[in-house]
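Annotated sample (chain length 301).
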Amino acid sequence: MTVPNSSPDTPSPWTPAADDEALPDPSPSPSALRARLLPELRVGAPIFGACLVLGVLMGAMWYWLAPEVPLVVHGQSVLYVDPEGEQRAGADGTFVLLGLGFGLVTALAAFLYTQRRGGGIVVAGGLTAGGLVGSLIAMFLGIALGPTSDIIAHAKQVGDGHNFSEALQLGAKGALLAWPMAALVALLALTAAFGKREQDPPPYWAGPVVPSAGGPVDELAPPVAGADAGAGAGAGSGAAAAPSDQAESAAAAGPDAPAAPANQAAPVKPVVPANPVVPPPSSGGSSASADQGADSARQTQ
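Output written by the structure step:
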């Protein structure tokens, strides 16, 4: 592409020169990325590890608090002692309640641990991943601590007519999300209520403001163009009127008058109205003049 009215040999201004500097690569280098990730990992790793340890505690508490499902051996069959019982639902509910409690505790501990730093995405990520893995540890540990899952072998072991408990199970797998969800909601509430606040930037029109004698100045108020223009026009007219007054005074004084110093203020001339108003004569003055005229006429006679 060539510029109109130019020869083909003339280089186009839109063609970059060969010696132009190349633009820098916006992608960070691996060393810079590593330097930014290491401090974040130092904060998130303790939170994740604490959740794993608490997962072991949650599994032991679930095995201890979950209701048992009783079974009975009847001949060659294994029957439920209470066919309409809700022990299985109670075991799932116990797991959910424990997950909610551990989520609140871990969120509070993580918030206090990172309050001075100001939190961040690494705190939320550590709570989410740690809560989910901790729930899995609690589920597998509770099942391992509970009765065996081989019902036939357990029934042969206890014998006919005896009772035993069914293996602990988590029927609702969605209960695994109770811990991470509760932790995220609690962390969000704590951050919104007691988190570190960042100072809002000043508005674009804010600048160095000199306080006036009339009172305080609102720094956040936008500037008023009319007031500034009026003040500038008034000052300009006053400055222009001062030299003209000095010139008139010099012309009236004559050539022999000494020149006034430059820094001396011009004298103020009285302002005479164009149409002076003459007050009407009062009635008392007219009557006094008439009496004087009559007295002089009598004396003449």
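Annotation: The two ends are 122 Å apart (CA to CA).
Annotation: The longest strand covers residues 70-74.
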